[in-house]
């Protein structure tokens, strides 16, 4: 059975990862399906972007060069509180223990996906958090 790609038309995403290949791949994946994507390689850069481009979904690596993804989400939640919103967030990580997963959920991430990234699972997670129907 052929499954139609999920349309992310009009969805605003911020993707944070210090790996240029990951940023490029994820940006292309979501832009091809209609999302507006902004990317950052650090927490500082991500906060600058999110301040003027509030995303519908945040996708962030946990291990970043300046601060970690937990610190980023704490700062995003502070911005959210000022704007009366709550940005759904997906954690990406090379760390795959149950403790790492638990820490991500306790920090406030709604989804936790490990690297290497399964693009289908990521697309489904984004669609689910955005409330996008996946029907063919």
From TrEMBL:
InterPro entries xrefs: Bact_response_regulator, CheY-like_superfamily, Sig_transdc_resp-reg_receiver
Signal peptide: none
GO biological process terms, semicolon-separated: phosphorelay signal transduction system
Species assigned in the record: Tolypothrix tenuis PCC 7101
Keyword Phosphoprotein: yes
Modified residues (4-aspartylphosphate): 61
Matches recorded under Pfam families: Response_reg
PROSITE patterns reported in the protein's UniProt record: RESPONSE_REGULATORY
Keywords linked to the UniProt accession: Phosphoprotein
Protein name: Response regulator receiver protein
Domain Response regulatory stretches: 12-130
Source species, domain of life: Bacteria
């Amino acid at each position: 059975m052929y499954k139609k790609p999920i349309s992310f038309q009009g969805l605003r995403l911020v993707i944070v990862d210090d790996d240029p290949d990951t940023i490029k791949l994820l940006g292309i994946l979501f832009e091809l399906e209609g999302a507006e994507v902004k990317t950052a390689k650090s927490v500082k850069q991500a906060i600058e972007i999110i301040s003027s481009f509030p995303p519908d979904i945040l996708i962030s690596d946990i291990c970043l060069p300046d601060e970690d993804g937990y610190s980023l989400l704490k700062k995003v939640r502070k911005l959210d509180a000022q704007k009366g919103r709550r940005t759904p967030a997906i954690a990406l990580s090379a760390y795959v223990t149950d403790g790492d997963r638990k820490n991500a959920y306790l920090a406030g991430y709604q989804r936790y996906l490990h690297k290497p990234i399964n693009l289908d699972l990521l697309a489904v997670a984004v669609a689910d958090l955005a409330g996008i129907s996946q029907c063919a």
